[in-house]
Amino acid sequence: MSEVDMLASRGAAKSGSSGAAVELDCKGLLCPLPVYRASQAISRLEPGAVLRVECTDRGSLADFPAFARQRNLTLLSATERDGVQVFELRKEADA
Amino acid sequence: MSGLPARERRSGNGNGRRRRLALVASKGTLDGAYPPLILAATAASLGWEVGIFFTFYGLDIIHRKKHKKLKVAALANPALPVSVPNLVGALPGMTAAATAMMKGWMKRSNLPGIPQFLDMARESGVKLFACSTTMGVMGVKEKDLVEGADVAGATAFLDYAADADVSLFV
Predict the structure, then answer these.
(1) Cβ contacts of residue B20 below 8 Å, gap of 6+?
(2) pTM
(3) What domain range includes position A85?
């Protein structure tokens, strides 16, 4: 398994059982990988869908609000607990 | 134009275009190759257009063979975490040791290698400009470059960079 495949599987987006949000696990990944994976996941989503990203890179707290601005996404929430940052992003019709 | 969203389109630059990043990559070391490729992958993730002009030793980053073997200088590198006097840094094996150390950090941090970052850049549509003067000076042929590289002079790159919102020399 190549490094990229490994990272891809680690950052694979999975549909939550509730169907409410698509989950993306970016724990253990450093910049630029969380935003890179989130960008790939967002591109596959339909407008109105929500992506939930979990990160441990300290820079993510600054990066995800900027990512949302640049990609025209709505940052629904940004929380941190036990060193894990969780971001919920909604894809808009024009994103 | 009708149908404009109420909110400002931040990924555009106000002229109805996507934002654009123009980078010059001039260093051919392992530690010199990461910053431009990380910036390029990030900007592409933000929906920006990205072009990198690989010039002088920076051309090694898109050299078919050399990009897999970029090294960290042990000689005259005061930033190494272990203090290495220049006389010691000049000894055989010291460059390999410094390179192995950085590759170890990258692996431990789950950061991809240079070949993987190049793949990410190409998948994201990043334009790779290969400096034609460097190719002439160093005897690099088009077949020596990684797939997707475009041979160009400074004029073509500046023409691209003239429409950039962010331009950086690395």
Answers:
(1) B13, B48, B49, B50, B51, B160, B163, B164, B165, B166
(2) 0.87
(3) 3-91
